Amino acid sequence: MTNEFNEVLSVGGHATMVRRYTEKRLARLPRDRQGYHRGLLDLHDDLTRRGEESPTRVMAAAHGMPEETMRACLRVARQHVNSPSVPIKE
Prior knowledge:
Blueprint: H1 2-5, H2 13-27, H3 33-49, H4 55-63, H5 67-82
Helix pairs in contact: 2-4, 3-5, 4-5
């Protein structure tokens, strides 16, 4: 009860909070390709700044995909944002 009063998160509480935050951010990403890719990179940077040890793993879990797939998405996003005139094969 003291922990609840002092707002101490239970075991796994922090992970749940981070996952929910990430899920909400992913759900609000723009639908256009440029905005989506920029949003993915911004979210990854945000999680890193907040001290998340494995932002890619958190994003993959929140997006419901394997971590390797999220790594590939981030790689494509970096390429697209750095060279927006280069078409991306779908």
